[in-house]
Amino acid sequence: MAKQTVAEQFVEVLVRAGVQRLYGVVGDSLNPVVDAVRRHRGIDWVQVRHEETAAFAAGAEAQIGGRLGACAGSCGPGNLHLINGLYDAHRSMAPVLALASHIPSSEIGTAYFQETHPEQLFRECSHYCELVSTAGQLPRVLQTAVQHAVGLGGVAVIALPGDVAAQPAPERASEHALVTRRPLVRPGESDLDALTRLVDAAGKVTLFCGSGTAGSHAEVMAFAERVKAPVGHALRGKEFIQYDNPYDVGMSGLLGYGAAYEAMHECDLLLLLGTDFPYNAFLPDDVRIAQVDVRAEHLGRRSRLDLAVWGDVGETLRCLTPLVKEKTNRRFLDGMLKKHSDALEGVVGAYTRKVEKHVPIHPEYVAAVLDEEAAEDAVFTVDTGMCNVWAARYLTPNGRRRVIGSFTHGSMANALPQAIGAQFLDRRRQVVSMSGDGGFSMLMGDFLTLVQYDLPVKVVLFDNSSLGLVELEMLVSGLPSFGTRYRNPDFAAVAEACGAFGVRVEKPKELRSALRAALKHRGPALVDVVTDPNALSIPPKITGEQVSGFALSMGRMVLEGGVGRMVQMARSNLRNIPRP
Fold first, then answer.
1. Would you say 202 and 228 are in contact if contact means Cβ atoms under 8 Å apart?
2. What total number of domains does the chain contain?
3. Residue 326, SS3 per DSSP
4. HSE-up of 563 (CA within 13 Å, CB side)?
5. What pTM value is reported for the model?
6. Domain boundary at 342, 373, 402, which?
């Protein structure tokens, strides 16, 4: 019986860690591992057109599936292409194992063809990054990499020379136990006592929730009811906290809407739950703040804290809710619900006024119709830019849908690659890529991956021939837009030339039927919607400097932003306010 090679050992450990796919592009230094994957029944090789796509896809699979994802790149340029997608996975806390194959071990340090130093290059976007120099290293180093990715939530990188991968593995190499699930973390009694005192002393409490509230919806709602707190959220917290939420006051931040900003600034105590919200300009500096997070390094790095609590949001609230005194005064909560409803009513007209006649099509209208037509358990992947705005304001969460994007790293071109990873995870689940024309065209080659594997991803392309959010940033700064316009092809015709379903929409009355046809189609599909390039968005709080910037650039432009079915949600919550 032939001895197991290092490459075969590498693949075997990945399979035991729960990895089902290895995304990448083949190359000489990677060949031993790719061949080992070919011969192993428990794992598939997914051939993409660009390694950046591989990393994005692995990160998406990790986020949606809740388990380790994996990607690989050949030596030098091959694995360098992984780096942007790995940055995104790392900052999204998605557990991903990346294989950066390397030049022949005897040539390292000689400026050999394609030589880089991956053990140095990937350090900033990983929890763990090590070079395997000998066959005897691999089992323990790989196990350590897996535990870092899963345990800390993020990326681990193994740099493996191709010649080492082809070597025989040591006999009787120890088979290590692998931990593939994270534990729950409960705060200490002293922290719970301190938090209880803060909550009891505050007359007005506001909750602001991030992605760390995943799986804790019931606990957040129970606590909000007990202390009569309005509940706002960051973009990454929307899918986990906004649905079935009678305390909802919207979202704060650059893409925000509603009364979340006011609720955070007018309370006595702001409780930050599982959020690493990066924009401290939207956080108050004159109210008491407590933060709960399972990542200790997140505590206090965005704002001054009166109390930092290390623990899972769900576990913390399960312990805390029975300890705090129930509040009976709803004045603050009801006032914020009224402000929220009024704020949404004021902007709803932007996408409801003559939208079925407006050409080019309002992008808000596209997002609203897509929200109505998409499946109740759909996965949406969202390009960075104005697609973030439309997703934040129009996609309706329900506890079953998922929405992911490059929300922390802010990379272009993420939506299509992430849709690939999400669709491989479950071919029967509807996956929709909300793509901007700039992001889509950047990694458009991987639309061919959808065709090659017959992945039924639906790409809804917001085609405004511009980098819309960049234009907005220029306008805010008082600069004329420059370098932001594209000359685009008929993307639907491109999709059909690739062998997929394609339809181009230029009139609003054609939109719904086109979306229905694409969503019904069994294979990959693209809907190229020509949208209004002048549709922009403004944050919920605007400074004088921003206003003057707009005035300098486009004084006559009216900036409005609709909010879709969130208006109906706010109205419903307002109707539920108890009357004396």
1. no
2. 3
3. coil
4. 26
5. 0.92
6. 342
